[in-house]
Each structure stands twice: as C-alpha cells, then as structure tokens.
Write a structure and sequence with these properties.
By secondary structure, the protein is mostly helical. It has two domains: 399 residues, MFS general substrate transporter like domains (Growth Hormone, Chain: A, Up-down Bundle), CATH 1.20.1250; 50 residues. The chain has 20 helices and no strands. Helix 3 packs parallel to helix 5.
Amino acid sequence: MTAHEGLTYRQRMLILAICCMSLFMVGMDTTIVNIALPTIQVDLQAGISGLQWTIDAYALVLGSLLMFSGSMGDRLGRRRVFLAGLTMFGTASLLCSLAPNIDWLIAFRAIQGVGGSMLNPVALSIVSNIFTDDRERARAVGIWAGVFGLSMALGPLVGGLLIGAGLGWRSLFWINIPVALVALFLTSRLILESRAAHQRRVDPVGQALIITLVAALTYAIIEGPDSGWASPAILVCLAFAALALIGLLAYEPRRHEPLLELRFFASVPFSGASAIALIAFAAVGGFALITTLYLQEVRDYSALQAGLLFVPVAAAAMVSGPLSGRLVASRGPRLSLVGAGAALTLCALMLTGLSATTSIGWLVLAYVVFGLGFGMVSAPVNNTALSGMPRAQSGVAAAIVSTGRQVGQTLGVAVAGSIVASGLHGSLRTGLPSASQAAWWVMAGSGLVVVGLAVLTTTARAGRTAIAVGEKAVGSEV
C-alpha cells in the first residue's frame, strides 16, 4: 500500500515519535517491575513463585504472540492492530495497578503481554513503510533503537524513583495509562491505515505451531533452572518445542502462503540479524539480572540507589542508538555491529573480577560501556532484517527479529541465573561475586560471537543473498 506516500519529513518523524511511545512502554515494562518485587511480596503476601511469574507471565505471552501479531498487522491493517494493542496494553496496566492479589496481578501481566505483542513488530512495520529511503529508514531505526535501549535501561531507575517517593508498586503501572491515551489519540489522527497489498491466506496451523514452539521453549527456559532440566515438566515442554519445530520445517514450505517464510532465512543478513538479536539480548538479560542482584544484595543499595546506577546505561544507550543509525545509513551495518559486540565483550571482561568492594567508578565505567554496546545493536539488526524483504511482509520480518530478542533475553536470564545458582556457596551477599564470574565469561564470549557474525553477514556476497530472497518473495506475491 502507498497510504503514507506524500507525507512530509516532519509528518513522518511525528509518526515515528508515536511508534516510539509504544515501544517505550513495552521496553520499560520489561525491566521496571523487577525493582519492586520486594514491595509486591510484602503487600500481596506473595511467594517466590508468584513473584517470578509476575515477571515471566509478561515475557512468556509477549514472546509467544509476536509472530502472530506481526502477521495480523500485515493482513488486517497495521493501524488497526496498533490501536488494539495500545488499548489492551493501557487497560491491562490499569488492571495491574488494581490487582487485589498476586494471582490477578499475574493474569493482568499476561494481558499486558498480549497488548505488547501488537505494538513492537507492528510499529516497526509502520516505520519501515513510511521511511522507504534506505538512509532515512536507517536513521529512523537508529532513533527507534535508542528509545528501546533507553526504555529498558530507565525501567529500574523510574521504578526506584517511584518506590523511593513512597508511591508504591502500583504506581509503576500508572505511568503507562497517560502514554497509551496520548498515543491512541495521535495514532487515530495521524497514522493512516496500511496493509499488505496482497491479502495472504490465514495460516492457523503455522500460527499454532509457532505459538507452541515459542511458548514451550520460553517456559522451559524460565522454569528449567528451578525445576531441573531433567524434570518431567521441562522435558515435556522441550519435547513439545522440538515437535513444533519439526512440524514447522515440514509444513510451512508446503504452503503457498505460509506465516513463517522460511525462505527469508536464505538471506544471510536476515539470518545473521536474527541470530545476533538472540545472542546480544541474551547478554542483556544476564547483565540485568546479575547487576540488579549485585547492587541490592551484595552492596545493600536501596531500590532508588540501584536504579540511579542504571543511569549510565540509559545515557550511553540514548547516545549510541541514534549514532548507530547514522552509521548504518552512511557506512552500512558492519561497523555498528562490530562496535556493539566489542562493547558487550569489554564490559563483561571488566566485570569478571567483580567483588563486594569494586569501586563505584569502575562499575559506572563498565555500565557506560555496556550501554554503548546495547544501544548500538538494535539499529543495524532491525535495519538489516527489513532491508531487502518485501514491504508486504515487513510485519512478519520484524516479528521474527523481535521474537529472537525476547527469547534471547529470557534465555540470558535463565542461563545467568543457573550459572550463579550452581556456583553459589553461602548467601547471595557473600557468594554472588565469585559465582557470577563464569556468567561474565559466557557474556564475553557472546559479544565475540556477535563480532564474528557481524563480519560474516555483511559481505557483498551476503548482501546478494538478501537481494535474491527479496526478489523471489516479491515475485511470488504477483
């Protein structure tokens, strides 16, 4: 569709701002609740399992439905699905703030995940459809990446400020409501409807297999460290995930119009972007978990003090995200991806010697380096994933990468938590620094893998595979 052709640059930037508002809510709600778990535990008399699911219900539902929501945006209309997502996310946030007990809070967090799944890939699809020039799109995605990095990094800070001000954990959800209302108003006034020119057939089997794969795998990743990887429940989940994957590989290529275009993965840049998203955000998840535990359990900082120490991460990400977008526009994705991987590696190496007496200056420096890497990775990943792909399926392409990010972050939390738990001797206060060393080395290795993939997937030969895949995909739509 060409609904947005003829818009001025100012109008396109305003639409980008609206889309970034939705991304800000989704990203912040990924991290803001962590800092309030002790308060929620006391207020709702919740057990450890209930607190875990307060976080995981959101992540599980969000990760499971990203692909489905992205495809529905392409089919039913991106504006329509985006508005539905804003409405559901804002309503669920209000319900979370009113939850009378932990069970209702978990249920409302799951509804938040449904709404969030309609926002991230659909908003990115809207952005890719209004910024059709490669350079403009790269810069726009850079701004998008900066907002995403800023939102996740600001989550602990905003949560700490609200709790420190005595407003309680319910206030964490209040801030979403006015943002959702403003975004709803602006979207209804400024964003025109767009959808795939060719209305692809619904693929209920493919959708069910993808939801089963992501949900079962995410659940296993979340519960594996606590239940034991050899426990019956985890083995059943892993078996369901494996069967769903086999089913996708066997079924989707046989469909004329599949939900999951496996031929996209014949594009080396697209496959590389998906892998980098998973690996880099696994490092992000592990970093956030260990850092939060270290600051509050080992250094005995309050929620506000711990949140303030995330400011360097947020500030660095806010700077490096747009800078990365400009680099992608002028020099291509390689430099940004190599810089991101190198920064993640350097930060992890700096923290391998973490102790209870590590200087605040050293911590702040490491956090700045991490923020630079975190901010730089999203722009080239998103831009590379969308470049060469047919605009009619931009929602699905964006959703694949978003799913990689979500699953990667969950995997990082699970792996880092498992490593720390297996190496912990005594309490967190005394044993966390030494128990986390292996996790930091794993994260350093992850950064090096990102560097390697960045070099391998940005060659001229790799670029030709993306062009070939895009041409075949467009040809099949005619």
